[in-house]
From TrEMBL:
This is MFS transporter. The keyword Membrane applies. SUPFAM superfamilies: MFS general substrate transporter (SSF103473). The chain crosses the membrane at residues 51-70, 79-97, 103-124, 145-170, 176-196, 220-245, 257-276, 288-305, 311-330. It comes from the Bacteria. The keyword Transmembrane applies. Signal peptide: none annotated. Residues 396-419 are annotated as: Disordered. Keywords: Membrane, Transmembrane, Transmembrane helix. InterPro entries: MFS_trans_sf. It comes from Actinomadura macrotermitis.
Length: 419
């Protein structure tokens, strides 16, 4: 019987729209923060951008557990809608912040309110995984399909967000453009109510934790430590190269629109290679991550050495080709090591957040010496990812007869609190 299937497809589309809108709203201004602070407040110190990003990410990390505690007493959809409506009110004021300090404080408040949406991510991903599992022949490929879908949404949203940010920066009244993000918050609140009411019962519960195979506890801890280090280095590499890239590109003669296009070119490369993710996963297995990270590192090194826009285009595309496969491989590595819930998952995800917190401060310090230096730092971090992920021995297999974990991680750490 097929009646349930047509109902599921629109629901999946709504889930994708929610994730994409959230990413666009939270990251649209990220590539242009130095220019935004210069135009609005006459602040051109790179340290101001680094401090702003650091404050927003610290706030995002701190408030999420508080929203989790609130969700134990208040229905999930009420928490999320309350957070998004509060964020809309803050965003209206954000565009009219009188100075840099007020803008940073209001942005932090907006991040705190928007963090409520992350409470709904497990329900979103569980529904997407349930559909993927019904279309794939085994848990491994179901997990791969679900991860690939999330990565595709991430990169499509990255392209859209960059274009939106460039459009906002081109407005004659920049403040109105900043405040207009309140409309997105309201739209998200409407979609959230629709989605959470339509999800099957039980989708909001915690995902399964990994089942550890019998073996030495020391080896298990080493595997978790390796996964955490890979995650930290990977997240750090992507985050450190972002804040000042458009300034660097404009310095090479790209212009403001060209800088925006160059910023999202890695996402174009990633989208081009993602259809081959399953084939590459089956062919290379555990070697996929070190190889993809190596290609991505080569792309960032090429960008660092670029003397003009054509060379920069080549480096961005090469980095994107490696990035698409590396993101899938990293999330699959996290899934095998930690599952999607439980103390191991929480510990590794918390450690990974350290990469996002440290990146803007180091990036700001680096550009005070050379605008291209964050690209070299990103390449070095990706070389560390490649070295750490080299296969040394087969991954542990869950004990026979025990259930496998839920087949997809929730890549919350990938969301950057940049607005």
């Amino acid at each position: 019987m097929t009646p349930a299937r047509p109902a599921g497809l629109p629901l999946r589309a709504v889930l994708i729209a929610v994730i994409a809108l959230y990413l666009v709203a939270e990251t649209a201004l990220a590539p242009f923060l130095p220019q935004l602070f210069d135009r609005l407040y006459g602040v051109d110190d790179p340290g101001a951008t680094g401090l702003y990003l650091w404050v927003c990410r610290i706030v995002g990390l701190v408030v999420l557990p508080l929203w989790g505690l609130a969700a134990r007493r208040v229905p999930l959809h009420r928490c999320v809608v309350a957070g998004l409506c509060s964020a809309a009110a803050v965003d209206v004021m954000l565009g009219f912040a009188p100075n840099y300090a007020a803008f940073t404080a209001l942005s932090a408040a907006s991040v705190a309110c928007n963090a409520a949406l992350l409470l709904a991510y497990p329900a979103f991903v569980a529904e997407h995984t349930r559909r993927a599992a019904g279309e794939q022949g085994d848990a491994e490929h179901a997990g791969l399909a679900a991860v690939r879908s999330i990565v595709v949404v991430f990169h499509v949203a990255a392209v859209a967000a960059t274009l939106v940010g460039a459009g906002v920066l081109a407005l004659p009244d920049l403040r109105l453009g900043v405040s207009a993000f309140a409309v997105v918050d309201v739209l998200l609140a409407v979609l959230i109510v629709r989605v959470l009411r339509r999800l099957p019962a039980g989708h909001g519960g915690p995902a399964a934790a990994p089942v550890r195979a019998p073996g030495p506890r020391r080896r298990w801890w080493l595997l978790l430590a390796q996964a955490a280090l890979i995650g930290v280095a990977f997240d750090f590499a992507l985050a450190v190269a972002r804040p000042f890239f458009t300034e660097f590109a404009e310095g090479l003669g790209s212009g403001s629109l060209g800088g925006a296009v160059l910023f999202f070119l890695p996402s174009v490369g990633a989208l081009a290679v993602l259809p081959a993710a399953r084939r590459c996963h089956d062919r290379f297995g555990h070697r996929l991550l070190p190889l993809a990270a190596l290609v991505c590192a080569a792309g960032f090194a090429w960008q660092y050495a670029a003397g003009g826009v054509p060379a920069l285009v080549g480096g961005r595309l090469l980095a994107g080709l490696g990035l698409g496969l590396a993101q899938v491989a990293v999330e699959m590595r996290m899934f095998r090591s930690t599952g999607t819930a439980g103390p191991a998952f929480t510990a590794v995800e918390t450690v990974r957040s350290a990469g996002l917190i440290a990146a803007p401060l180091l990036s700001a310090a680096a550009v005070s010496h050379d605008l291209a230096l964050p690209l070299a730092i990103a390449a070095a971090a990706l070389l560390c990812v490649s070295a750490l992920s080299l296969p040394k021995s087969p991954a542990p297999v869950p004990a026979e007869g025990l259930p496998h974990p839920s087949p997809v991680p929730v890549p919350v750490h990938a969301e950057e609190y940049d607005r």
